[in-house]
Design goal:
The protein is mostly helical. A hairpin with a 6-residue loop joins strand 1 and strand 2. Helix 1 crosses helix 2, helix 7 runs antiparallel to helix 8 and helix 9 runs antiparallel to helix 10. One of its GO terms (molecular function) is protein domain specific binding. Its main location: Golgi. One of its GO terms (biological process) is intracellular protein transport.
């Protein structure tokens, strides 16, 4: 019984898995052999920890010459059994087993997960950068709005000072008043165009009716024929006058809703810049009369920089408004001189019945008439 157990313990292989764990189903038999003749760890424990596995296997004791001291499970019989008498395969040991038992287990390979996380980290940093930029922009806008609102209420209640250019303000007031009057002229000219267009259409329908009756009433053929010819001539001259009035309306519309409106937009930007300039000027004046400690000096320096920035903006827009007002006045005089002369000559020639002078007036001002029916959609568009 004892011999069979020792033979099994001496000839048993020790499998080691990839994780360095040697606990298998066969470990129970090995433990039984270790209890009989001593564990394999006690043999390994006598070796230096830093020795290489190959050196251990070369310089270590020959297992064929090693004796195993055995003891019974309950008996008193003891003896020395030479291992040379035990036949069987040699013991194969996984080097990783010794490394792990001696605390020299190799470190796991570094994970490559960080390479995959770099794009996500960069995306997070970019998102944080955008969020910070938006927050700073919102902060600046809030501070600027607060200062401008405070300055606006101070001016309305007479508590704050206001930068005023009397000459420029007078020109701006004149422009606003002129725009209102020109808008009235534009509205009335459009009403005249609509009414006159309806009259021309009525004259054309009346002339067609007279011409039809001249064919069906032999006794009144000449009378109906004369009136039909007169209405047709009036309709033709009316269409010519409509071309002149439409050109007049188009030019006034461009002057009012484009040229003047562009100047008024610049004026609005100038007024906002003036309000910001006064707001930061009042802020700098308030800080200047306060304490002069280190923190206050930093705030004063920042306020001085903001004041200079808004001062430059205000002066630049002030210059732009002055130049645009000057050019607008020159352009207005030039345009209105031409358009008023066209309107007068065309209306006079129409009501005088001078068809040649009416056509000459349109040629003089390069007014091109649209052919009759050009405003109507084609048969392809109607489909």
């Amino acid at each position: 019984m004892t011999d069979s157990i020792l033979s099994k313990a001496a000839t048993m292989e020790i499998p080691i898995n990839s994780n360095g764990d040697s606990r298998t189903a066969e470990d129970d038999g090995l433990e039984q052999g270790a209890q009989i003749g001593g564990s394999l760890d006690e043999i390994v424990g006598t070796l230096p920890v830093t020795m290489d596995l190959q050196q251990v296997m070369v310089s270590g004791p020959n297992l064929n010459e090693t004796s195993i001291v055995s003891g019974g499970y309950g008996g008193a019989a003891e003896g020395i059994i030479p291992t040379s008498s035990i036949k069987g395969p040699a013991i194969h040991v996984n080097p990783e087993y010794f490394d792990r038992r001696c605390g020299n287990a190799p470190k796991p390979a570094p994970s490559m997960h960080h390479s995959n996380s770099n794009p996500s980290m960069m995306s997070e940093e970019a998102t944080k950068g955008v969020a910070v930029e938006k927050f700073d922009s919102m902060k600046k806008w809030s501070i600027n709005t607060y200062k401008c609102t405070k300055q606006m209420f101070s001016e309305r209640f007479g508590r704050g000072s206001k930068t005023v250019d009397m000459e420029l303000e007078a020109q701006i007031d004149v422009l606003r008043e002129t725009k209102m009057k020109y808008e009235r002229i534009l509205r009335l000219a459009r009403e005249l165009t609509n009414h006159f267009y309806n009259m021309v259409q009525t004259q054309q329908a009346l002339g067609d009716t007279f011409a039809d009756l001249s064919q069906k009433s032999p006794e009144l053929q000449d009378e109906f024929g004369y009136n039909a010819e007169t209405q047709r001539l009036l309709c033709k001259n009316g269409e010519t006058l409509l071309g002149a009035i439409n050109f007049f309306v188009s030019s006034i519309n461009t002057l009012v809703n484009k040229t003047m409106e562009d100047t008024l937009m610049t004026i609005k930007m100038y007024e906002n810049a003036r309000l910001e300039f006064d707001a930061y000027r009042a802020d700098l004046e308030e800080l200047s009369v306060g304490p002069r400690d280190a923190a206050a000096m930093v705030r004063i320096e920042i306020a001085q920089q903001q004041y200079q920035i808004h001062k430059d903006k205000y002066e630049r827009l002030h210059s732009d408004v002055s130049i645009k007002l000057k050019f607008l006045e020159e352009n207005k005089v030039k345009v209105m001189h031409k358009q008023l002369l066209l309107f007068h000559n065309a209306v006079s020639a129409y009501f005088a019945g001078n068809q040649q002078q009416l056509e000459q007036t349109l040629r003089q001002f390069n007014v091109k008439l649209k052919p009759p029916g050009s405003d109507k959609p084609s048969w392809l568009e109607e489909q």
